[in-house]
Amino acid sequence: MSDEEDRTGPASQRRFDQAREAGQAPLSREVATVAVLGAAFAVMLLDGAAMVRRFIVGVHPFLDQPHLLEPIAGLRTAALLAVVLMMPLISVAAFVGAGSVLVQTSFLIHTRALIPDFARVSPMRGFARLFGTTMLIDAGKSLIKLGIVGWSGWAVAGEIWPLLAKAGSGSAAGLVALVWKMLAMLVMPMLGAQGAIALLDVARVRIKHARDLRMSREEAKQEARESDGDPHVKARIRQIRQQRVKRRMVAQVARATVVITNPTHYAVALAYDRGNGGAPRVVAKGEDEMAARIRAAASKSAVPMVANPPLARALYSVPLDTEISADHFQAVAEIIAYVWALNGRRA
Asked: Model's pTM, two decimal places?
């Protein structure tokens, strides 16, 4: 099984973040296209008629008196006038197009994308892209757009054609209105189709982005180890810490006042110093194997051991190096008094 076939697990949030840091984000060009078309159409709605009127007025003297300019100079003047008049439309369309890209990528700006990638001009990779799934999808979308534009043009031609014969004898205002009507009839179906294509393309791009970032089982394990640490190392560290705690507890038994036992399952060592005025503290505790080690240390250090199963189980829940609660004062005080009396008789 190849690495690509093994990547069946969903991508983690960390993988998405890493892809974003590398400049990868789901981006639909169709959204940018519909945004540019919509912005341009909005500008044409607001100022299109006046724009066309100004253009006609600007070139009208040259049309009335063509001898004033040579043909090439006249075309150059008309083209320059058209560019100047369309600058607001071009500026708004460029701004909206860039904004649509930033919104889709959550304002991702990656300077690495500006660095030339010569691998992209590889003939083999270019050949693969030419016959790849993405190219087929783009070709299908282009055919749909072409069909819609052709249908719109045919519909416009059928309705506008009778008016074109009369346009030459009409006024400039009538010609502007005619051009504007033709433009609107062409753009509106294209804009609606482009919007529908953009919605579908957004879903396709996002699904493809998630599919491209899918992880194999080994990659998921590796990421877990990198994020949370190696489980084996963490278990070893935890084991070492527990061993150190146990050694410290066994060492504290020698300074204990009494060890209260279950007598075999639990053992709790208490230390009490009348000089500091506090309550007895739990300096060591354990069950089963650790309880046996505490009893052995107590026997070695001649620390008295008292069997009291209910009290031993109750004191086992008290955290290490913590004073016992008031609920246990009476029982513990009696045991300590007994131990002191026993030590006094021995002395």
From this structure: 0.53
